[in-house]
Amino acid sequence: MSCAPLPQTMMGYVVRCSGRHQIGLAALAAGVFGLSSVPLELQRRIVNDAIKSGATATILWLAAAYAGVALLEQGLKLALNIYRAWVSEDAVRSLRRSLRDIEQPDSDKAGTHTAMIVAEVEPIGGFVGMAISEPLLQAGILASVIGYMTYLEPWALVLCAGFLLPQALFVPSMQQAINRRAEKRIRTLRKVGGDIVETGMPEDERIERVFALNMGIYKIKFTMNLAMNFMYYLAVAVALGVGGLFAVDGRIEVGTVVAVVSGLGKLNDPWGDLVSWGRELSVDSVKYRLFAEAVSRRERTEGLATA
Questions:
Q1: The whole model's pTM is what?
Q2: Per-residue pLDDT tens digits for 48-79
Q3: What pLDDT score was predicted for residue 121?
Q4: What is the mean pLDDT of the chain?
Q5: From CA 148, how far away is CA 267, in angstroms rounded?
Q6: CB 84 within 8 A of CB 133
Q7: Domain annotation covers residue 2
Q8: Domain that holds residue 225
Q9: What's the total number of domains in the chain?
């Protein structure tokens, strides 16, 4: 996979260097999210049949269908993950080759060059495999599950909105704070690489700076995770409370309450994965921009030196 000269943006690199593979990954992702709401319906029917009629044969058939759908879904996920890993590793290999033959005139640039080849290309290449298929998969699961829950009970749409909308407000601002620290961290680590090549050891001040930036990133990231988890458990509590009252009054079936609570669980994971994807896109876009700028500068320097 050759992409020289490097595109200016991360997504431009993804499309140019793995476009046809992204189509295959998207097809597998569509297969996975297409099955995402089927287990919820089978689960609802099993609970209702067991409570209402005690139809043993029907329950067994539904349980077998549940297991079959789960196996098919997991098989598609396995194929998707392996394919993603191959695309990512191919991107890492390509990025390392783009730097392999660039000469470094001094020790500081040699340290930067080493850091880029060894460390920086890993997260950039790793993101390539999930760049398009991941948001498609997770957004598809969210749409499928929310649509199914709303079909069962219209009030579930309000519950889903109460679960997701507050997070859509606080997640972006916290992610921007992470991005700013991530860019400073990359620039500092490049200087650390230059220190090691030039003197054999990094400066203490830069080591402390990296430590402080990393701890800042961790604090914001884990606080954001805590807030997201709290919103999930709050939504489950509301679903159990309201759904339990409706079930006692005979307004809904117990199986519907079970399906709604299970649906919230199915929303929590893809929403968290979608937020993680957005985080990685933001951070890796910064890394890619710095990487592409460094490669471009070195190519221009070589061109002037040989002119």
A1: 0.71
A2: 766 666 667 778 888 899 899 989 999 999 99
A3: 79
A4: 81
A5: 12
A6: yes
A7: no
A8: 10-306
A9: 1
